[in-house]
Design goal:
The chain is mainly alpha-helical. The chain has helices at about 5-35, 50-75, 80-115, 115-130, 135-140, 145-155. This is MFS transporter. Keywords: Membrane, Transmembrane, Transmembrane helix.
């Protein structure tokens, strides 16, 4: 019989998932830049990516906020800590996906066309994903925890 999943392992796995996504984007961005190695800084209205990439990034940003708030608002104070952390983990992974997809799209668009705008957008989305790193203080602000649960998390 497998060992029960502890609350610490749920939060630790979320940190690992976040770090893996960030490292994956950074490595992919470096690879794309090394391979392309050029910037086209002019605004090309004939390139459909010029309009699609910023729109996808804006949608990804607002979707990440909306979905995360929606899913964390359904976490009730009466749930046990493991249920709360599992719901928080699920909401966070969905948020990360909403941020990562536009970043990948920006890197791919840069790779295909060399447009500096796409690389800048992808780097901004990657930086935004980095800032979303899960921490205990953020967790305490974002979901309803009892004083006992806070002590358990901090230990």
């Amino acid at each position: 019989m497998p060992a029960p999943i502890s609350t610490a392992s749920i939060f630790k796995s979320l940190k690992i998932i976040h770090m893996a996504l960030v490292i994956g984007l950074v490595v992919f961005g470096i690879f794309v830049y090394q391979d392309k190695g050029e910037f086209i800084a002019e605004f090309d209205q004939s390139n459909p990516f010029t309009f699609i990439v910023p729109i996808v990034a804006i949608i990804g940003y607002f979707a990440s906020l909306y979905v995360f708030r929606l899913r964390t608002s359904k976490i009730e104070r009466s749930q046990n800590l493991k249920e709360k952390l599992t719901a928080y983990q699920s909401a966070s992974i969905t948020k990360y996906a909403c941020i990562e997809a536009p970043a990948l799209f920006g890197f791919i668009s840069y790779f295909l066309s060399g447009g500096a705008l796409f690389l800048v957008i992808a780097l901004c989305m990657t930086a935004y994903l980095m800032v979303q790193r899960p921490t205990i203080p953020k967790l305490k602000e974002q979901i309803p925890l009892t004083p006992e649960e806070i002590r358990e998390l901090e230990n």
